[in-house]
Amino acid sequence: MNHPIIDVSGLSFSYNGTPVLSDVSFRIHEKEFVALIGPNGGGKTTLIKLLIGLLKPRQGHVQIMGKTPGQVAGQIGYVPQDLNINKSFPISVMDVVLMGRLPFSRWTGLSKKDTAAAISALESMNMLDLRDRKIDDLSGGQRERAFIARALATDPKILFLDEPTANIDSRGRSELFGILKELNKTKTIIVVSHDTMVLSSYVTAVACVNRSVHYHDNAEITEEMLEMGYHCPVDIIAHGLPHRILKTHGNE
Ligand SMILES: Nc1ncnc2c1ncn2[C@@H]1O[C@H](COP(=O)(O)OP(=O)(O)OP(=O)(O)O)[C@@H](O)[C@H]1O
Ligand SMILES: [Mg+2]
Question: Is 105 helix (H, G, I), strand (E, B) or coil?
């Protein structure tokens, strides 16, 4: 039971020779709810892409359930950042969610099982009544929930969400995190978000990403951590002790 679900060791990555992540190591255990926080350009999206196998490490390795990300692709759900930029998507909500089943159906056509899984994913996101709506005709928050439903259509063990609340108002944010908390009963959740105060009552661990990664896997934030200077203001805490406020890790 103590095996990590995600094991990152000595991971480094550069885009065209420009280092973005250097010597990153941490472990995530099953059913954790991890917030990835950090400044713009700090490497959060890059880290997620490395974790799910969309990018390959320059050095080090990522293991998910003891395998490479590619070997467990069917167990991973991913909701990318900036879904709202690419707006021209003239298909229905149901079709978008069914697309999430394609890794399983392998183009042999969709079965009743695929439809049932899509409906169940839509239900879990409170989106079933909008199943026939064109994805273009949704609000930003509804569109986000449709894409989360797509990521859930394979019933993944791990769900990665890259800034899912960027286009959502504060009520919608709490609602969305409430849904994620429910999903967290059966899934490991890893979410990039700047909504640190809203997140505070949900997360079990916090990873501060800024070239290096500082992983807080318990509520004890020590003086030492504060002095390490990760340039990453932390106003959330881990392990369900909400609203303990840490201003910075130091140096700011
Ligand atoms: N495809 C790419 N080619 C070259 N450089 C890139 C590419 N994608 C990202 N970068 C650079 O890598 C760095 C990290 O980017 P990344 O998108 O991982 O940051 P982030 O923490 O997700 O930022 P944000 O909070 O703005 O989403 C940035 O300096 C960015 O400009
Ligand atoms: Mg990003």
Answer: helix
Q: Which residues contact 34 (CB under 8 A, 6 or more apart)?
A: 28, 188, 189, 190, 191, 203, 204, 205, 206, 207
Pocket test for ligand 1, best of 20, 21, 40, 82 (most atoms within 8 A of CB): 20
Return the SS3 of 50.
Answer: helix
CA of 12 to the centre of ligand 1 (A): 14
Residue with tokens 């039971």: 1
Q: Over 90: is that where the pLDDT of 28 sits?
A: yes
Q: Whose CA is nearest to atom 27 of ligand 1?
A: 40
The ligand placed nearest to the CA atom of residue 16 is 1
Distance of CA 179 from the midpoint of ligand 1 (Å): 28
Question: What are the angstrom distances between the C-alpha of 128 and each of 84, 119, 146, 150?
Answer: 20, 7, 9, 12
Q: What is the pTM of this model?
A: 0.87
Mean pLDDT, range 32-45, rounded to an integer: 89
Is there a contact between 51 and 8 (Cβ–Cβ < 8 Å)?
Answer: yes
Task: Identify which of 8-12, 217-221, 226-230 has the greatest average pLDDT.
Answer: 8-12
**25, 37, 83 from 144: Cα distances, Å:** 30, 19, 7
C-alpha 42 to ligand 2 mean position (Å): 8
Domains of the chain are: 6-227 (3.40.50.300)
Report the separation in Å between the CA atom of 230 and the middle of ligand 1, taken as the mean of its atom positions.
18
Which of 11, 44, 230 has most ligand 1 atoms within 8 Å of CB, for mutation?
44
